[in-house]
Structures are given as structure tokens and as C-alpha cells.
Design a protein that fits this description.
CATH architecture: Alpha-Beta Complex
CATH class: Alpha Beta
Number of strands: 12
Strand order of the largest sheet: 3-2-1-4-9-6-10
Helix content: 25-40%
Structural class: alpha/beta
Keywords: Glycosyltransferase, Signal, Transferase
Order of helices and strands: HHEHEHEHHHEEHEEHHHEEHHHHEEEH
Oligomer: single chain
Family: Belongs to the glycosyltransferase 15 family.
GO biological process, one term: protein O-linked glycosylation
Distance between the termini: 62 Å
Largest sheet: 7 strands, mixed
Organism: Periconia macrospinosa
Bound molecules: guanosine-5'-diphosphate, magnesium ion
GO molecular function: alpha-1,2-mannosyltransferase activity
Shape: globular
């Protein structure tokens, strides 16, 4: 028996409403990133909320086994046959930053190194003061070493044209490139990019963990981080991924492409090149940086294998960049230089996100959802101005590479 017309109409309308509601649910964004309290968000917010999911909000623990643990005295500071592998914590630091490095040391010792007792190796362009040595030695049970950087690794190289350098400084200062006028900043970036691995004191060392003054570590880490790198065949570990000021690296990518033209076989088959060239999220950055997204591993935290920085490919690449003068005529940072090299020459699966190492270098955080962490807000990326949230480019890394 046919249904009355009114009932059929009602049924059709109900189905339409149901379909409409169903589509709305499908389009809703799951797990949009929680923004810091008080962030009123403008344009920056809307970008963020398009990111589907911030994995740092998920409960997380340690990375996969095998994990090397403390058992008895196997990592005791004076154990000659300890389970420590060939590695050091390293820090380029000024005498005037003593208080800042002691704060960083106290945090890293408390959360990790008081268990594993890896040595600390300090570098400076001038001799360390006795007070610096005394106080930093007293801040750890592990061994401490102090080294001066050879002049030829620090001084402005002979091929830099000083007039051009001065002109570039005024030009890029006008474009608001931070620290452009600080020669020591250029020297520091160059050293951290390609000369730290060449310091005679590190020549037989394989892994390093870079630590700066005034950084914080929030989470207890109960496994040997260097041992984990070795067991899992990792080259590099990061924990924060941000965009750079494109004006500071405007010719880094074009110079890189020139290098690749001469060495077409150097790009790794499993490289993260697509990540370097991503233009979806910040197209302006990519345009101004002439093809490079400017997304980089924030290198004030890095755990790495020095063999990568000493490899033929990287030595040649660094030499090429260095000769082009961009460490002075622009303000190439060691973070984008390291990131571009890793993104091109390394297998992307050998780059690891240390999500579990809670960390802060002003103004950014890496703060896991983990009961082992204290003193930071889970998932908070910055406690600075709201627009800084826009600088987070981890989602671009996750998109292209995943979370390994
Ligand atoms: N010895 C020495 N260390 C420096 C110099 N400039 C920077 N550093 C160190 O290099 C690292 C990066 O410098 P920093 O001022 O923190 O730069 P930012 O993190 O980019 O603001 C820190 O560990 C500093 O202590 C310098 O002229 N001499
Ligand atoms: Mg710093």
C-alpha cells in the first residue's frame, strides 16, 4: 500500500537532515591542537587548527626496545669498564654564561645524566676561566673537558669580502634579520654548522648531545640515549621543529641546488627532500627562501652521530656553502644548514623525534604527555606571544616522514 504523500515528504526531509548532520560530523576536525591559555588567536590560530592531530597530546612513554638501563654500577662515573658508549655531551659556551650553563647542567643531570654519567665537553673561542671550570666540574659526577676553538675555525675566513659583509649587514638588518649585526653570531653558526665535528678533541668521539645555556629538561629519561641511537641505527635526534626567517637563508637553497647539480648522486634514495621543499603550510617562506620551506630541526637540542658531519658528502657540502659566503653575507644558521643536509643526504628513517625528552629553549617547548614529566604544560609549544604557534612545523615533518 502506497504511503500518503505527506509521510513520504517527511521521510525524505528526515533523510536529508540526517545526511547533512552526518557530513558535518565527518568534516569536523578531530583533536585540533590546544593552544596556550590566553591565546586569542588570529590568523595564526586558523592555520594551526587545520592540523589534524598533535601527537604530543597523546600519552607516550619511552621509544622502542632495546633500551639500555642502569644495572648495578654499569654506568658508575668511575667504572673503567662501564656500559657507556663513545659519546659526550657538548656545549659551546661563553664564560659569562656560567650561570645559564649550570642551570642547564642541573636539569640534564637530574633527569638523565646523573644515572649514565656521560662526560661533558665544553668549547669556547677564548680560554675558560678557572671559576667556569671549577663550578661546572662540581655540577656533575661525570668527567668534564674544556677546549678552546682553533683560531682558523673561528675567525672570519680569508675569502670573505669585508665591504660586502658590511653592506649585507645593513641590508638584512633593514629586513629585520635577528643578530645580523653580531659577528660572533655568524661565527658561532658557521662553527656549529661544519667545524665543531672537526675539533681535534672530538676526532675519536662518535655521538654527541648538544646543550646550550639556559635550557630546561622536564622529564626523567631512564635509558641510555646514546646507546639507543646506536642500537636503532639513528643518525640524528631532534625534539622541536620550526620555521626560520626566510630572509636569513634567502640563497641557502639556490646554493644547495648548485651543489646538487655538481653531485647529482648525493641525494639519498630515502631522503626527506619533500619535507624541505614543502610549500603547503607557509608558501611565503618557501617563496622568500627561493624554494626551501625553512622548516628545520631546532639545533640548540641535537643528539647526533658525528660520522654524518664528517662524511665526504657533508664535508663537500659545507665547504661549498662556506666558500659561497652565506654564513656572513646572509645569516645562515646551523639549524637550517644541518637540516637541509640531513633532509637530502640521510635516510629519513634515521632521523628520530625525541618526543620523550621534555625540553625548553625560550620561547619554545617540547612537552610530552607523560607522568615522568614535571614543570611544563603537556603539548604547549610556546609560552610567548600567540603568533609564535605558527612557527611550529612538526606537522610538516610528520606529514612527509612520519614519527620515527
Ligand atoms: N664561546 C662562545 N659561545 C658562543 C658565542 N656566541 C654564541 N655562543 C654559544 O652558542 C650557542 C648559541 O648561542 P645563543 O646566544 O644561545 O643563540 P640563540 O639560541 O640562537 O639565541 C650558545 O650555547 C652560546 O653559549 C661566542 O661568541 N663564544
Ligand atoms: Mg640559545
Amino acid at each position: 500500500m502506497a504511503l500518503p504523500r505527506a509521510i513520504r515528504l517527511l521521510a525524505a526531509v528526515t533523510i536529508c537532515i540526517f545526511l547533512f548532520l552526518f557530513l558535518q560530523i565527518l568534516r569536523a576536525e578531530p583533536g585540533a591542537i590546544r593552544l596556550p591559555d590566553g591565546h586569542k588567536g588570529k590568523e595564526s590560530n586558523s592555520k594551526l587548527q587545520k592540523w589534524e592531530h598533535d601527537p604530543q597530546l597523546d600519552p607516550s612513554g619511552e621509544p622502542p626496545e632495546p633500551l639500555r638501563r642502569v644495572k648495578g654500577d654499569n654506568y658508575a662515573p668511575d667504572n673503567e669498564n662501564s656500559d657507556r658508549i663513545n659519546a659526550t655531551i657538548l656545549s659551546l659556551v661563553r664564560n659569562e654564561e656560567l650561570k645559564g650553563i649550570l642551570d642547564s647542567m642541573n636539569d640534564l643531570e637530574r633527569t638523565w645524566n646523573s644515572k649514565f654519567n656521560y662526560p661533558w665537553t665544553f668549547f669556547n673561542d677564548v680560554p675558560f676561566t678557572e671559576e667556569f671550570k671549577r663550578k661546572t666540574t662540581a655540577a656533575t659526577k661525570a668527567k668534564t673537558y674544556y677546549h678552546q676553538i682553533p683560531k682558523e675555525h673561528w675567525e672570519i675566513p680569508s675569502w670573505i669580502n669585508h665591504d660586502l659583509y658590511a653592506e649585507s649587514v645593513s641590508l638584512l638588518r633593514a629586513q629585520k634579520v635577528q643578530y645580523m649585526e653580531k659577528t660572533s653570531y655568524h661565527q658561532m653558526c658557521r662553527w656549529n654548522s661544519g667545524l665543531f665535528s672537526e675539533h681535534p678533541a672530538l676526532l675519536t668521539t662518535q655521538y654527541y648531545w648538544r646543550v646550550e645555556p639556559n635550557v630546561r629538561f622536564f622529564c626523567d629519561v631512564d635509558y641510555d640515549v646514546f646507546g639507543w641511537m646506536a642500537d636503532h641505527n639513528k643518525t640524528y635526534g631532534f625534539n622541536i621543529n620550526i620555521y626560520d626567517s626566510p630572509e636569513s637563508v634567502a640563497t641557502l637553497w639556490p646554493e644547495t641546488l648548485k651543489f646538487l647539480q655538481d653531485h647529482p648522486g648525493y641525494v639519498h634514495e630515502e631522503s626527506a627532500r619533500e619535507w624541505l621543499e614543502d610549500g603547503m603550510h607557509r608558501p611565503d617562506n618557501k617563496r622568500k627562501a627561493n624554494g626551501y620551506s625553512t622548516c628545520h630541526f631546532w639545533s640548540n637540542f641535537e643528539v647526533g652521530d658525528l660520522s654524518f658531519w664528517r662524511s665526504k658528502k657533508y664535508r663537500e657540502y659545507f665547504e661549498h656553502l662556506d666558500r659561497s659566503g652565506g654564513f656572513f653575507y646572509e645569516r645562515w644558521g646551523d639549524a637550517p644548514v644541518h637540516s637541509v643536509a640531513l633532509g637530502l643526504f640521510e635516510d629519513k628513517s634515521k632521523i628520530h623525534w625525541f618526543r620523550d625528552i621534555g625540553y625548553q629553549h625560550v620561547p619554545f617547548f617540547n612537552c610530552p604527555n607523560n607522568p615522568k614529566c614535571g614543570g611544563c604544560v603537556t603539548g604547549r609549544f610556546t609560552d610567548g606571544e600567540g603568533w609564535l604557534n605558527r612557527e611550529d612545523c612538526r606537522p610538516v615533518w610528520f606529514k612527509h616522514v612520519g614519527m620515527d
